[in-house]
Amino acid sequence: MTKKSSKKKRSKKTKKGPKRPRNSWIFFSVEMRPEYSERYSSFKDEMDEEYREYRRLLKEGEQDLEKKLAFNAYLLQEMGKVWQRMSESEKQPYIDMASEDKDRYVIEKAKFNDESSDSE
Predict the structure, then answer these.
(1) Which of 45, 49, 76, 107 sits at 20 to 30 Å (Cα–Cα) from 13?
(2) How many C-beta neighbours within 10 Å does residue 104 have?
(3) What count of other Cβ atoms lies within 10 Å of the Cβ of residue 54?
(4) What is the pLDDT of residue 69?
(5) Which among 91, 75, 88 is positioned nearest to 36, based on CA atoms?
């Protein structure tokens, strides 16, 4: 007895819709990332050297080394500390940008829903 495959045909995917709104932290991190990348570039160089050494030791059979902290994770950690120490007035420009982006999303989502209901 041969079994027939019971795979169902997928229906065509609909357009995904508008991009979700960013929050205030995202606006802050996008703006500050170049500055922090520059500030901590020496740390990145150190991380690169440590990573090369880590890979070399792994090739030689050293399996119990701890993984090194990635540069991006370190940057986000440092920016997170700054964000937590910021007052509401310092965060306000980013909160305003997030609010504007949310308004954009609501408008685009409504337009998308209208278009998708019209096509049905």
Answers:
(1) 107
(2) 14
(3) 16
(4) 47
(5) 75
The count of residues in the chain is 120
CB proximity list for 111: less than 8 A, separation 6 or greater: 18
DSSP symbol at 27: H
pLDDT in tens, 55-91: 676 666 554 444 444 667 778 888 999 999 999 999 9
Q: Where are the beta strands (DSSP E) in 1-120?
A: none
User: What's the whole-number average pLDDT of the chain?
Assistant: 79
- Of 24, 33, 29, the closest CA to residue 100 belongs to 24
14 pLDDT above the threshold of 70: no
3-state secondary structure of 86: coil
* Sequence-ordered list of residues with C-beta below 8 angstroms from that of 78, at least 6 positions apart, any chain: 36, 40
First and final C-alpha spacing in the chain: 42
Q: Where along the chain do its domains lie?
A: 24-110
